[in-house]
Amino acid sequence: KSGMLLRARFMFDTMPERDVVSWNTMVIGYAQNGNLREALWFYRELRRSGIKYNEFSFAGILTACVKSRELQLNRQAHGQVLVAGFLSNVVLSCSIIDAYAKCGQMECARRCFDEMAVKDSHIWTTLISGYAKLGDMEAANKLFCEMPEKNPVSWTALIAGYVRQGSGDQALDLFRKMIALRVKPEQFTFSSCLCASATIASLIHGKQIHGYMIRTSVSPNAIVISSLIDMYSKSGSLEASERVFSLCGDKRDCVLWNTMISALAQHGLGHKALRMLDDMIKTRVQPNRATLVVILNACSHSGLVEEGVRWFELMTVEHGIVPDQEHYACLIDLLGRAGCFKELMSRIERMPFKPDEHIWNAILGVSRIHGNVELGKKAAEELIKLDPESSAPYILLSSIYADHGKWESVEELRGIMKKRRVNKEKAVSWIEIEKKVETFTVSDGSHPRKDEIYSVLHNLAALMEKEASRS
């Protein structure tokens, strides 16, 4: 439990006699610490030893199933629990359902759920969370409505699901219902709702949530404080973000610093972000991989090429952060925006791994900025290989062709999209009017006030044409 597995293993190996409790402890210890191979080895040895196992013997192997997300392993464990006659154990059944959900096998998870005679709130919440994480909000909401006794965790699971799907307004509606029913929110509830406010850039909703926290004397953890900083920043109130950060008493969590640096980067304050990073290191807060991502983004958006490259090198040498694909993508974006294509290509050639979608997306983005058709075409082709159904590389490459007047290439690309049945994702816009967030898509025919909206647009177009004819 303390994570000292070497000592635990030594004690286990020196035991003259081992009972089922000692074997179970080793399986669970290794599984909880993420050492799945050792957990499986101990479980197999327990079964071969002839020692009579019990319900707890399956807890560790099911923890390994949840963490590994290996469907075949979960099916085998499920079968063994069934044969042993322990499916009536709510904790074991819940782990099986959770493992199936994490493997994306919601039909199997639902079948296990339906076969259970006794279902506690944890089982219900696990299944709701499974549907929500996979984006099936209709099934998640239906199950939530059927749930006999809802708790803060189940409310939060559904709210978080709507946030992940980009439905911030629905998440906030659910939060309002939760408060009206006097259900006490958890820390994760607040962070999810603040994230919802940030996604729709609704400052008023974010302020209301912050005000509720103050009125109810909620002591926010680092994640919630970070969510507050992010919400204020994305809603256009950087000053409020800085005030939240400065009033935070305990600044030992790296997440707080990363979020504040990211906020400064979003507002184009690269130099200030670099000073914030210096303060972070002086305070003896150890940077992590996310710190390198946000500082590279800050340098990229402010054109601070030398500083960005310097920190890219320093993070490895002084802080032991080994750059991954995302870091290289940020570095490519930094160099590409500044037009340093020679250095960019040199960095790509020296990368210790093959480029993934992060890097090709960065290359495609900077190719469009600088009109590099050949490099853009290469990047788009690689992205299409990685994800043939994504419309993004087609759209960006089409924009590069259009910028250079290559309309035949644009038409050819559209033909390929049509042939491959790749559809462009509709962009969503929103505006807050009289404390209500209105959302729109291109050629929206579902909005309740569409007739009024299109009438105003028609009148505006007529006025623009009239003004154009006068000039």
From TrEMBL:
The lineage of its organism: Eukaryota, Viridiplantae, Streptophyta, Embryophyta, Tracheophyta. Pfam families: E_motif, PPR, PPR_2. Keywords: Repeat. PPR repeats lie at residues 19-53, 120-150, 151-185, 253-287. The keyword Zinc does not apply. This is Pentatricopeptide repeat-containing protein. InterPro entries: E_motif, PPR_At4g14850-like_plant, PPR_rpt, TPR-like_helical_dom_sf. GO terms for molecular function: RNA binding. GO terms for biological process: RNA modification. It comes from the Eukaryota.
